[in-house]
Amino acid sequence: MSGKKNIAGALPVFLFFSLTTALLAQEKEPPVVSAPAGKAPSDAVVLFDGKDLSGWTYKDGRPAGWIVADGAMTVNGGHIMSKKEFGDHQLHVEFATPSPATGDGQARGNSGVYLQGMYELQVLDSYENKTSVKGMCGAIYQQYTPLVNASRKPGEWQTYDIIFHAPKFDSAGNVIEKAIITVLYNGVLILDHVSISPTPGRLKENESPRGPVFLQDHRHPVKYRNIWVRELK
After folding, report:
1. Residue 151 and residue 157: Cα distance in Å, rounded?
2. What average pLDDT does range 204-224 have in this prediction?
3. What are the CA-CA distances from residue 149 to residues 23, 138, 170 (Å)?
4. How far apart are CA 5 and CA 158, in angstroms?
5. What is Dmax (Cα atoms) for the chain?
6. Scanning 115, 148, 153, 171, which has the fewest C-beta atoms within 10 Å of its C-beta?
7. pLDDT digits (tens, 9 = 90+) for 16-60
8. How far apart are CA 233 and CA 227, in angstroms?
C-alpha cells in the first residue's frame, strides 16, 4: 500500500519535469553575438572603420570628401549620409570636438547626428560652455534637454550609444506612433525612451520607415570614428 502511495506522489513531479523539458525544447535560443571590447559587435554594419568613406555620400550623391586621417574623419565640405538606410536600430558613434576650443555657445564644436536623416542628436562642445539647454550636446535639437551634462573636455573622444525605434504608420502613410530614442552619452543615460519629431536641417520633409545616418557639417572641424549600426529585428 505504501509503495502505491509513493508512486502516486511521484507522478506530479514527473509530469512537472516532463512539461518543463517539453517547454524548454520549444524555446528558441537567441543568436550568439561576439562583442570584443572597443570593436563593433559581430552582427553590426560598420559604417566607418577609420580607413575610408566608401559607405558615405554627400547629400547630392557625390562621394563623401571629409578628411580621413589617424583612424578618424573630420567634417569637411558639406553634410554626409550613409548609403545604407535603417529602421529600428542601435547606433554607436564616437566624436571629438576641436581642441583648443574657440568660440562659445552654438559656435563651439557644433555638428549633429541625425537618426534616419530626420531627428538631430546635437553634437557640441558643452564642456564649460553655456548655451540653450535644448541645443547643448546630447539634446534632441530644440525638443529635449539631456538629463545630465556628461561632456568631456575639447579634443577628448566621446561616445553616443543610441537605441532608435522608427515611427509607425497606418496604411495611408500617416504617423500613428512617433519615433522613440534612448541615448547613453559617455556611458551615462541622458535620454530615456522619449518620443521625438523631425528637427530642423533634416534631409526631407516627411518621415519614413527607414533612413540613413546623417552627419552634419556646421563648419566646425569635429572628428568622428568607430561608427556602426545593429539593426533591431
Report:
1. 10
2. 97
3. 47, 8, 37
4. 68
5. 92
6. 171
7. 666 666 666 678 889 999 988 888 999 999 999 999 999 999 999
8. 20
The reported pTM is 0.88
Cell 536641417 locates to 201
At position 179, the amino acid (one-letter code) is A
CA 223 remoteness from chain centre: 17
186: alpha, beta or left, given left = phi > 0 and alpha = psi -120 to 50?
left
Report pLDDT for 15.
Answer: 64
User: Taking Cα atoms as reference points, which of 109, 147, 146 lies closest to residue 127?
Assistant: 109
Chain position carrying cell 523539458? 21
Domains and CATH numbers, the chain: 45-231 (2.60.120.560)
CB 26 within 8 A of CB 18: no
Nearest to 196 by CA among 173, 162, 230, 227: 162
- What whole-number distance in Å separates Cα of residue 176 and Cα of residue 170? 6
pLDDT of residue 9: 57
Please give the average per-residue pLDDT across 138-158, as a whole number.
Answer: 98
Residue 200 is given by DSSP the state T
Checking phi first, is residue 83 left (phi over 0); if not, alpha (psi -120 to 50) or beta? alpha
